[in-house]
Amino acid sequence: MSRQRDHGPMNNGLAAALSVVGDWWTLLILREIFRGNVRFEHINNQLRVARNIQTDRLTRLVSGGVVEKIRYSDKPERFEYRLTDMGRDLYGAIIMLKAWGDTWVLGTPTPLIVHTSCGNPVAPVATCGHCGNGLTFDDTHDSHPGSGAGE
Amino acid sequence: MSRQRDHGPMNNGLAAALSVVGDWWTLLILREIFRGNVRFEHINNQLRVARNIQTDRLTRLVSGGVVEKIRYSDKPERFEYRLTDMGRDLYGAIIMLKAWGDTWVLGTPTPLIVHTSCGNPVAPVATCGHCGNGLTFDDTHDSHPGSGAGE
């Protein structure tokens, strides 16, 4: 079972994702924006992160296309940050990572998130978009284009 | 719709997860271990990361309980890194983040991962472990214990 890879780390979806959102603060800032804390001060009140770091991470999120900076007031000039489609599509990864931290690091769901339409606490599972079954590492393999395809 | 949170960022599953695996290199190292590159040199050959950084991140993964360091040779003394149950349970979050990078940053699945039992390229979806339906931010809400419960 060869799982070696023959290309560098940057030519890889995970590395590409981390280059945009791989910073500790970046994901926490995104989570605040998901929660509706879309203004600089609101995010800062929640995270108590150094303002220059927050500014830097927000600038990167805007340049990466994950959030948009929208002016909501002219006098004084004020902005808020809104998720793009690209940003909203990160929700699955964020909720999976949060659930892992709840389970394995904290030992309790904090905060508890509820799946509104079914009423149960969220226990996210990564499933296959084709067959709908759960995804595990042992049931996946890398396909190497040009190396014979098939199995 | 109040989604404000009344506790600090560290009292939060996402922050807790990131405190263990939030580093750029940490997740890439974990992905190599998932791929079967469990020895220091193999990981280093794949990622070409500075050795002191790799050593530091592996040490943190061991102390965080995500991987175990196992001696596989006495003379010379050699070790390999194996995922714990805690580590294996990160697969869902990693595959979701990789798929996001494929879709939104690279524009192509690199490498292409196949769901072995169904034969299709992996397109992971975060679903509810209770009802099985897909999870979106708009269909979830924070539950604030002691604030009245219910809806």
**Structural class, from secondary structure content of chain A?**
alpha+beta
The CA-CA distance between the termini of chain A, in Å, is: 11 Å
* CATH topology descriptor of chain A: Arc Repressor Mutant, subunit A
* Secondary structure tally, helices of chain A: 6
Seen as an oligomer or otherwise, the chain set is homodimer
Topology of chain A as a string of helices (H) and strands (E):
HHHHEEHHEEE
Q: Largest beta sheet of chain A, briefly?
A: 2 strands, antiparallel
Stretches of chain A where pLDDT is under 50 for at least 5 consecutive residues are 1-10, 146-151
Overall body shape of chain A: globular
The radius of gyration of chain A is: 19 Å
Question: What CATH first level of chain A would be assigned?
Answer: Mainly Alpha
Averaged pLDDT of chain A: 86
Which percent band covers the strand fraction of chain A? Answer: 15-25%
Please name the fourth-level CATH homologous superfamily of chain A: Winged helix-like DNA-binding domain superfamily/Winged helix DNA-binding domain
Largest beta sheet: strand ordering of chain A? 1-2
Largest interface: A-B, 88 and 88 residues
